[in-house]
Specification:
The complex is a heterodimer of chains A (165) and B (197). Chain A has helices at 3-27, 30-47, 57-72, 76-95, 98-111, 115-125, 130-137, 141-164. By secondary structure, chain A is mainly α. Chain A has a single domain (3-164), classed as RNA polymerase sigma factor, region 2, helix turn helix motif (Rna Polymerase Sigma Factor, Chain: A, Orthogonal Bundle). Chain A starts with a helix and ends with a helix. Chain B has one domain. Classes of the chains: A mainly alpha (165), B mainly alpha (197).
Chain lengths: 165, 197
Amino acid sequence: MDQKDILFKEIFDTNSKKIFHLCYGYTGDADSANDLLQETFLKVWQNLDKFRQKSLISTWIYRIAVNTCLTYLRSEKRQAKDELTDNIIENRIEEYSEKNEQVALLYKSISKLEENDRLIITMVLDELPYAEIAEISGISEGNLRVKIHRIKQKLTELYNQHARI
Amino acid sequence: MQEFKDIQSLWQSHSVEVKISAEEMLEQAKKEVNVIRNKSMLNIAGMALSFVAISSLLFYFDFNSWTTLLGIGIIVLAVGIYTWLLYREHRLISRNDFTEHPGEFLHKLHEYQLSRYNLYNKLYWFYASAISIGFVLYFYEMLENMNGSVQLVFILFTVFWMIFCATILRKSFMKREKERIDLLIEKFERISGQLKN
């Protein structure tokens, strides 16, 4: 194993869980999240030499992941899969326990948000610092705070609405 | 009624499991390219085998007519040239690794697709014509001592097989290969395109 492989393995082991969570939050589907995770880390591998350490490596990876998520579902072939997300989540609700039903409900609520909002709230839920989210999403920190406040409200509303049904 | 902090703790209590390792991930990315490489390799191996089998006829049988020798010679030459062209194409995709040089690999993949298209269109008809002429010359001596109905069966089967290869088989092969390469190109272009952002 050469130096690059070792470094990549370390980066993958440290960040893959967070990135998978982000992708899962965005798609609501484990298979698509897995595809996105692979695409993200493939880009990381190819560009490892170009990483200049101007930001944290996790921020850099998150940016790649966000970019990957946003373009992934826009590709024509993935649209059909996207539409299936609701069904996937609904089917899984029947399979799981009460706690996992709540989790599935949460994924369903997140899937009702705008694409960008989905990614931002996933990072908020994972407690990423606001400065880092601002850098990843390319929004000023001031605007981001307002946006996050609005998304939090919207998500809570959606979750409670779905929970009542 | 849940508050946002309840939702957040629900999110954090839910653990996700990444089912793939770093090694598997890179392996999987390379696998898709390897499917095309292996198919191309099998194609070459099949052609090389035909080349050897047809050439060996010259060593194991004693033919009396020059038409048979010329027929076999033409077939062997056509198969040999086609095999060499297939090998030349194979080198386009076998020399590069997408995970190492994505830009170059994508360029070669486009080149490969175009070259494949030419091989199964224009060049295929030269190949099919040469093989047909070769078979006509070969059958001239081979079928001489057989009765009329056997001759007819041989000729009809060969004609049917050539037509089948040139139409249904060739078209479906081209369609499947185009779809496979298009998908790969689309995927790699999307990946490479995003990296420029």
